[in-house]
Specification:
Blueprint lengths: L1 E6 L4 H13 L3 E4 L10 H13 L5 E6 L3 H7 L7 E3 L3 H9 L5 E5 L5 H13 L6 H15 L1
Parallel strand pairs: 1-2, 1-3, 3-5, 4-5
Helix pairs in contact: 1-5, 2-3, 4-5
Bound molecules: D-ribose.
């Protein structure tokens, strides 16, 4: 898959680790940064990854900040993005099956590397169920377009 990843300084170490994990699995990964632990603003990276996913340049996006929360809030401002902050594999699975999430955000300060890898692997491997859930996702999209 073609994926975009991004982080702020607080998510940098976990983003690096997840990117390497995804590359080892054979994914094509575009890393928009950040590239060090110098302080930066997470919305700048959420926007780049969100816009790439919304434009169809990436199948999915992965964003990491300290908590994953700011990244989710910012990425969800991009029309077409359904970003979810995920702390375990069960929620990763549900976010794909029911919500057709296209961006997953991780907590660099609270999530262990092995857990992050498992979350991302589950997220990428799980299909949207469609059916009744499609109608609900369509209603989310309608809110975006009415705004
Ligand atoms: C940075 O200190 C921190 O606020 C940021 O990484 C993130 O957790 C925000 O939601």
């Amino acid at each position: 898959m073609r994926l975009y990843v991004g982080s702020d300084h607080a998510g940098f170490a976990l983003k690096e680790q997840v990117r390497e994990h995804l590359e080892q699995e054979g994914h094509e990964v575009v890393d928009v940064g950040t590239h060090s632990e110098d302080s930066v603003d997470y919305p700048d990276f959420a926007r780049q990854v969100g816009e790439a996913v919304a434009a169809g340049d990436a199948e999915y996006g992965i964003l990491v900040c300290g908590s994953g929360l700011g990244m989710a809030i910012a990425a969800n401002k991009v029309d077409g993005v359904r970003a979810v902050q995920v702390m375990d594999t069960e929620m990763a699975k549900m976010s794909r099956m029911h919500n057709d999430a296209n961006v997953v955000t991780l907590a660099g300060r609270y999530t262990e590397p092995a857990t992050a890898d498992a979350i991302v692997d589950t997220f990428l491997a799980t299909a949207f169920e469609g059916g009744r859930h499609q109608n609900r996702v369509d209603k989310i999209t309608a809110i975006e377009h009415e705004g």
